Amino acid sequence: MFRKNLAAKLTLVPSAVVIAVCFYGTILWTFYISLTHSTMLPNYRFYGFGQYLTLLSMPRWHTAFANMLIFGSLFIAGSLVIGTTLAALLDRNVKAEGLFRVFFLYPLSMSFVVTGLAWQWLLNPTTGIEALVRSFGWESFQFNWLASPEKAIYAVSIAAIWQSSGLVMAIMLAGLRGVDSDIWRAAKIDGIPVWRSYISIVLPMLRPLILTCVILLATAVVKSYDLVVAMTGGGPGISTDVPGKFVVDLLFQRANISTAAAAAILMLLSVICALSPYVYIELKRQKR
Amino acid sequence: MTATPLAQSEASIVHIVPHASKTKPGRVLLYIILSLAVVYYAIPLLLVISTSLKTADELRSGNIFTLPQSLNFDAWTKAWLTACTGIECNGIHGNFWNSVEIVVPSVVFSILFGALTGFALSQWQSKLSRVMLLSLMLGAFIPYQVILYPLVRIFSTVGLYGTLPGIILIHIIFGLPYMTLLFFNFYQGVSPELSKAAKMDGAGFFTIFFEIMLPMSVNVLVVAIIMQATGIWNDFLLGLIFAGRDHLPITVQLNNIVNTTTGVKEYNVNMAATFLTALPPLLIYILSGRYFARGLAAGAVKG
Fold it and tell me: What UniProt keywords apply to this chain's record, in alphabetical order (chain B) (predicted)?
């Protein structure tokens, strides 16, 4: 019995070690560090949940977490609406569909750093759109979101939507292509307008795909780091800070690894929250 | 994940025709909206390219939307060879080759490792292998920040921190979940009769993998190469933390050059550097076309 599939089992040993040590062992390690009072090097004496209290008393953490929620809801809603709309439009038997797809998808091939720098250039008040409109004679025109602490996070959201709405478009278009043409015929016979059919009949049918998109976008939100670093560096001040950047800064610049570990654990909990509807549905599906 | 490959879309157009709206104004509006969307998506890249072709004088006199007067590649040369990060003025060429040095072995080994793991999991199905599959799937969603510090400690203990093999190994580790799932899904669909027949003929596990399965998986391999090559080229965080000074990838150097606070900002040079960094993944995207979209659907877990 043991000899059966022996080669396959042995092949899996390195992967099993990597999974156990590098993914799950490190999570436990980080969790333990979050319960200590470590600064630059780990100090393994148990300290309790004090770091979580420290974290919750830090205004910078509140900014970072609030930004994650603002950025996340705008990014997810924006990408879903734009991506789904484009998919529905392309689904209307459009000529040169392939060419349109090239444009909608290419941002996905590029690094978030590149995206961030390109949009930084476009939205920079002294070089970008604001300067352009002012040069036309509208001297008081204002579009300085990147320079404004209240609005900079919205500028980041615009760039992120630009980068990722193509992903939603691709997933939803594939789903729309799978819709039975009988449904369309029936809707047409009943005299239901096309846009109504999309909203009331077709999109509800594609609920699993929409959920997939939401999960993908939501985990991207929690992980977000590069885009913010490249586009705003977290600024002006700390106004566009996000948890991902907060943790890296505390780990490698501020030498405060236990508070960073506590923040990282809260990031993990956020991912688990984002994933739970998916896991729940999967489990329900498997039971059936 | 559950998305149908986009390749099928062409075939299904035929079935869609019956419900396509024939009203003229609607069609016009449709194309207007799509064209506006094209403008929205195209402008940032066009501005990067156009700015990179301008001279310093043109930058000062015009606005961002004025086209460059001639094709002037001086900013490209400067970005490549002598752009400064505040301390050093070596451009991005060294980091470009660093990225190549990181990407090539990382892609080869992460695919090999993932394909073998995926194949082994498809061959041996039991409770334990399902646990492994599930932990891999969840592993794909763990934010890097949670496991970054322990990995730095482990890597520095074994002397890999800040070395080329170290950053390659990190990419192999982080590629394991996606690559395994991708290949597992494919090998799952291959008829079990095939490996049974091969086993009858006395072929072992590795013979079956290397001589039958791997040659069969060309399509998946292409998708995997595209996913990993673009993903690792575009990586920023792992390169920043693990690569070490001598092996910094181009994305990190690009950010250092553009967001450096010392000196006068040379936007044309910055945009040239940005474009040179974006070029390899863009070329992969343009050249691989349909495969890129397929990789997107397959690797959608990657986020």
Answer: Membrane, Plasmid, Transmembrane, Transmembrane helix, Transport
